[in-house]
Write a structure and sequence with these properties.
The protein is α+β, with helices and mostly antiparallel strands. The strands form 4 sheets. It has a 6-stranded mixed beta sheet with strand order 4-3-2-1-5-6. The longest helix has 24 residues. A hairpin with a 3-residue loop joins strand 13 and strand 14. It is elongated and about 75 Å long.
């Protein structure tokens, strides 16, 4: 399969106006935070600023130049490109223009790296710039929206194929493998970027029957036992039988910007599922309808959680809302280059919904003995409306 053509000698693959705008948004945030300079080392942030991933650092002066300190790959070209074999060589380029206050991605930078940088930027006050970068990335521009739309269309198509992938007697992991194959053939990158070190996942989550009620060490909306204690989440080899639900929450990264979607399937007629399962799934759809009305600029993210919880209580389903044996601490989250971006829809969130946010809402329920139900869709917040980027059928879908 032919991949998108790229000029591998050109460092910045973004449109020049996009790259400049993103850098200026970061500079504005830096000045407000009192930073003289910012050193970017995280792959997600490097991709955001250049459209590619490389080994090295991006040095951004609040009122000066951008320098790309690159170790690998070789032969990249562009304004501000400086090749270095080790970080200490950055000081040679900066000379006397050393910052007094330097921002670092301290949420994710290793201790040894920080200690090494202290010796390079002698006397500089080091501040955590991870929240600053997450806030800037939370507001997507037109270029990011176009990539999100492309991922959403691809992911929606793959989900439409899932009923045809099932065969009688299949296990959940066998179904997941077929979904993965279909996804990859449609161009899924396989990369599942997650911020932080407390969550791990491979390609997505397929939960069948009672496995959905198995607690996981990760703060996912749904858990699952997994196939091995080294990755204790998701499909566990359960045979898919009538009367069980199959919740599919698979990788939506087709462009470097990912959408997030969950749909529920079943073997046999939907009418044969327990009444409580069907009621809970309908409740999830109702929650989506109400929260989308609230997904407007200026709304407190925690208000969406509060309204969803109210609806679950009204329906008598609060015991099963966002888990049963173990509950998730959030209802939704921003998506983009990483699957867990801002804003966070949680009871104590301080985030405010803004134009340009891409938000995945996932009100889900776990019914013991039957499985998990509820949908997840990714929405984009415009100034005057909300766009559904994963507009797939929402009802429980029987396998062909």
């Amino acid at each position: 399969m032919k991949t998108k053509a790229q000029d591998y000698n050109k460092l910045v693959l973004l449109d020049e106006s996009v790259a400049r705008s993103r850098c200026e948004n970061i500079r504005k945030a830096m000045r407000e935070a009192g930073l003289d300079a910012l050193l970017v080392t995280d792959n997600a942030n490097k991709y955001f600023l250049t459209g590619r991933v490389f080994t090295g650092q991006i040095y951004i002066a609040a009122d000066g130049e951008v320098i790309y300190f690159i170790r690998r790959p070789l032969h990249l070209e562009g304004d501000g490109v400086v090749y270095v074999h080790k970080p200490e060589q950055m000081a040679e380029t900066l000379g006397l223009n050393m910052p007094q206050v330097l921002g670092l991605e301290l949420d994710i930078t290793a201790y040894n790296t920080v200690e090494r940088l202290k010796k390079i930027f002698i006397g500089a006050e080091l501040r955590n710039a991870s929240p600053l970068l997450r806030q800037v990335r939370a507001v997507k521009d037109a270029a990011a929206l176009e990539l999100l739309r492309m991922s959403g269309k691809k992911q929606t198509y793959v989900y439409s194929r899932i009923p045809r992938l099932f065969t009688e007697g299949m296990t959940d992991i066998e179904l997941q493998i077929e979904i993965e194959r279909t996804s990859r053939l449609q161009g899924c990158l396989g990369q599942f970027r997650i911020s932080g070190d407390s969550m791990e996942l491979y390609m997505g989550n397929v939960l069948t029957g009672d496995n959905a009620d198995t607690p996981s060490p990760y703060d996912f909306a749904m858990g699952g036992g997994g196939m091995d204690p080294s990755l204790p989440v998701g499909a566990d080899g359960t045979v898919i039988n009538p009367g069980m639900t199959v919740m599919v929450d698979m990788n939506g990264d087709y462009t470097g910007y990912m959408t997030d979607m969950t749909r529920v399937y079943c073997a046999g007629p939907v009418e044969a599922l327990p009444a409580q399962i069907r009621k809970a799934h309908d409740c999830s759809i109702r929650i989506h309808r109400e929260l989308v009305k609230m997904l407007v600029p200026g709304t407190e993210a925690k208000a969406l959680w509060q309204r969803a919880e109210e609806i679950a209580r009204e329906e008598g389903l609060h015991e099963y809302f966002m888990g049963h044996r173990q509950k998730a601490g959030f209802l939704g989250h921003g998506v983009g280059i990483e699957i867990n971006e801002l804003p966070v829809i949680a009871p104590r969130s301080r985030d405010i919904i803004a134009v340009g946010n891409a938000v995945a809402l996932e009100p889900k329920f776990v019914i013991p003995g039957a499985g998990a139900v509820g949908i997840e869709s990714t929405y984009f917040v415009h100034s005057d409306h909300v766009e559904n980027l994963t507009d797939a059928p929402e009802a429980i879908i029987p396998f062909d």
